[in-house]
Structures are given as structure tokens and as C-alpha cells.
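Troubleshooting log. The previous structure file for this entry was overwritten by mistake, so regenerating from the original sequence record. Sequence copied from the archived sheet and checked twice against the printout by T.R.
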Amino acid sequence: MMDNNGNRGFKKVLLVNLYYKESGYGERLNFPPVGLGYISQFLEKEGIEHAIIDTGAGYEHKDVLDKVNDFKPDLVGFSLNSICFPKSLDLMRETKKQFPQVSIVAGGPHISTRRDGVLKENDMVDYGIAREGEIPLALLCKGEDMSRIPGLIWRDSSGEVHCNEVEVSNIEGFPFPRFDKFDLQTRYDQGNISILTSRGCPFRCAFCQQSSLLGKNWRGRKNESVVEEIEYWHKRGFKSIHVLDDNFTFDKKRFFHIVDLLITKNLEGLKFSLIGGIRIQNTDEEILLKLKKIGVKKLSFGIESGSDKILKFIKKGISIADADRIVKMAVDMGFDVRLFFIIGFPYEKMEDVKKSFDFALKHKIREARFFNLVPYEGTAIMDWIKADSNAKLLYPYEEYMSNFKHFQRDPLFDSEKGMTLDEKKKALQMADDVVRKIEKRWPAD
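Regenerated output below.
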């Protein structure tokens, strides 16, 4: 245990993944959370005793409290997403109430964006870890001087909160997750597993949190390690690999080498899905041909807008001409293409939205999805709203993040520089019609 004068370390750790169906991403998770899987595997490597409970696999808050009671950890780590974070804070508060001897550490996206604000506003949270948690959590458990633990957020003996500098991790030294402490055989989709081969995003999309969560420095694991992981799961009977990378094809040479190594392995019956999609600017004919060689059938592209004016404002780094060329190429090569768009950007007019509709209908894509713009903390869009005197959030951040699904078709901010609220609502309704038109092109599965 620790006191306010320094960290004495922790011997038993319970890691908790928090998930809510109100997020809009489904009733539960189909795969174990890879981020927590990496942390678990690293703690295993460091000889730190720990257990896992994943509410995305169907466990309730009561189950978490029961696990604390049964496992008797001296440290409980919560993965805190921005979505539904007030509910997670309630669970952390109840954990501290029932088990006051237990210390609480929070990590995940919400901590990475809010940093010391979480500890200043919530006294039941003893520590926070910004960005990657493997090394900081292990050092915390081993009793390292708190002022020397990268990314650690902590209180000194006077109660003052400190936020240590984040260091970019060398992910090549992290063992890939085996998920030994997860209910892999009973709680998730059988035959499917997810992997992550790189971290960080060098792009500057104004609406996205990714670069603020894991940094702008893209880092890829060694090619041989990626192939070793895939071969490991194939030997265990998993035939469908879901790649979660946001930038899987960012390094073209690396991507080609991984594919070539996989081909030499001749892993029979193996299929790949790129859950994070690929970027228009990191796609060409050679890359698409390589994807076909490893059995990729479905491709997703984040177009965001059919208007070059809006693409420039959100710093997407592409033009409509770029997107048009790559989407046509992918469709012509036989991929099932899904496109993502966002409605409600500053400066966006109805004619800009109609350009998005026209783009979606132009190509014989398999699916289009149109999202209501959500201003996240730590993004340039949120900074823009706060800085513009004529813009304002229509709901408290805690409210719309607590019931994400409810606000899918309800504009979240107002500004004179863009569509009116009525126009935004109409545009979102029109988007549903476009989605239905695209669906009617294809026979029912």
C-alpha cells in the first residue's frame, strides 16, 4: 500500500474494463479489449499478480464489486472511456466506499484527455495514468518514486495534484496479448480475435481524439512479431483476425513485408477484417492487391465530407478527387466498401451535405454511415467551439457523453458559422434516406 509521502507499491491488481450499451456500439463486446490485454500481458511479464473483469463481456457493476471482494486486490485499475464516464465514476466511488483500503488508478481515453482534472474533481481516484499504461502501472506496483513514473497523475502529502510528463513507449518491447485472464472461450465470439499492430496517429483531423490519446508519433511493431501473433491465434483455432489499427497501411514497406511473410506461412482458412479501416492517402492499387491476397473482403474509408471546403477545414489531408479515385478503384476490384461521413461541422452548409450524399450514391458501395458530429474534449473542434463567441454547446459534456446513443440524431452545438439547428436535423434525416437507398441496391444477406 501507499501513503501520501510516497508509493510503497501494490502486490495484487484488479483491472476493470468499463463498457456500456448506451455507447451505441452494441449490447456487448465481441472481442476482449486489446488495450487491457496488453497491460495484462506486460504485468504478467513483470511478475505482478493481477486479475481481469470486462463489463463489455456481460458483467455488471455488481460483478465488479463482488470481484473486488473475492480477489482482494490492494489496487483496482479502471479503464475510463469518455463515453458514459459519469457512470464509471459512480462505480469507482462505490468501490472506494465499500473497500476504503483499496487504492484506485484510472487510465484510458478520459484520463488521457482530462489529465489532472479527473483527480482534482474526484477524490476517490488516487492515481491516473495518461496514454499508454503498461510501463507506468508496472512501476507504480513496484513502488517506484511517483515523481519518476512517466504519465502518472498523483497527489502529494499536501493534496496537490501532479501530472508527470508522458513518455512515448517503445511498443516493440511489449509482448502481444494472449488474453489468458479473460473469459475467452465463453464470453466472446468464437473463432474471432482482434489484434493491434501499431499505435499513434500522425494526422490532424479536427474531430478525432486519436492523436491526443496515443500521440502523433506513429509506431509499428516489428513485422515478425505481428506475424508471430497471427500464427499464434491461427494455431489456437482462430480463423478470423480483426485488425484494429487506425493506420495499418501507413508504412507501405512494412505492410508489404507483413503480407509477404503471411503468404509464406500459408495459414489455411485465415481471413482478415480491418476494423479501423484504411486512409485514402495511404491507399493505392498495390496496397489493394496485397489486401486481396490475405483475404480482405470488406474495406472502410472515412471520407467525412463530400466538400473540399469542409475537408480543408477539418484537416483531413485529402481532396474529393483523391477519395473518388480510390473508392472507385476499390469497388472495381471487388471490395465491399463502406464509407463514413460526419454531419454538422462548422462552416458546413446544406449544399456541402448534399455533396456528401452525392458522393455516397455515386459509387456502388456496400454501405454508408452518417454520424452526428460529437465534440470531444481534446479535439480541435472542441477548441473551436470554446474559442468562438458565437458557438456554444447545447448540452453539458457529461450529459451527451453519458447517453451517446440518445444523441445520434440530435445536434450538440450551435454556431452562426454553419447550418441552423433545424437544417442539421433535416440533414441527419436525409442521411437516413441515403443509407436506405444504398441498402436497396443489394439483396438481403
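Residues 12-163 form a domain with the Rossmann fold fold (CATH 3.40.50.280). Archived copy saved in two places this time.
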